[in-house]
Amino acid sequence: MRRADRLFQITQILRGRRNTTAKYLAERLGVGERTIYRDIRDLGLSGVPIEGEAGVGYRLKQGFDLPPLMFNIGEIHAMVAGLRLISTWGGNALKQQAHSVLEKIYAILPIDKQIAFERTPLFAPEFVNASQRGLFDQLHQSCQEQQKVLIRYRDGQQNHSERIVHPLALFFWGNTWTLLAWCELRQAFRSFRSDRITEAELLDQHFISPPGQQLQDYLRLIEHECDTTS
DNA sequence: AGAAGGGCTATGGGGTGTGG
DNA sequence: CCACACCCCATAGCCCTTCT
């Protein structure tokens, strides 16, 4: 780790804790306590208001904060999707940690970014088939931009169809992504396995989902079905 | 060569437990 | 309640090694 990175890490650690000892910092950052003392001294000389108290530890003076570190929508989607994967596929501890990270990220976001965070239309990351990356990008974009998509689809019985859909979210079920969308043809929610979408064309038309056609409506529907079957 | 980091040591201050 | 001992930890100096 570069020294500059370590100094940044120290301020980050101090921000998240009440009192932090040099020993703790040394263990966390993999250096000696003497090095931490020098780092703290240098941070102080750089204007970072760190208070040190013998027998207690270090803490940042109240009110001190770093210049805002902000994320764009794409970065937020990347973080949320990644953490949702960990949450889904990791153990209990990892799941808790992922939730904790999500809460922390959410807490520091301004209101408009919090909305983007909540509306992240990715419910699992990592699509398995690399050849589908282009399609995935299209579908992801259409979810984000609320852009209608014309898809050509081949179902399990090899029936081909062509329909205009309102993409709402992508779900990963273990081996393939499925696109959840409101189907104009069926006037209902439909899921489309991405590996069965033979072609997708983003249309120059945007949609606004009315009540009953929104992602939250679908999630409620699923939740209700789970409750009645269990 | 100079910077960074580690080991060792000494000093001083705060927190805590204990006994009177 | 107070004094005291002890522990923990910050701080700093010195010297040596390692890294860039």
Automatic annotation (TrEMBL):
Tagged with keyword Cell inner membrane: no
Annotated keywords: Transcription, Transcription regulation
Top-level lineage group: Bacteria
Domain annotation HTH deoR-type: ranges: 3-58
Gene3D superfamilies to which the protein is assigned, alphabetical: Winged helix-like DNA-binding domain superfamily/Winged helix DNA-binding domain
GO molecular function, one term: DNA-binding transcription factor activity
Record has Iron-sulfur as a keyword: no
Protein name per the record: YafY family transcriptional regulator
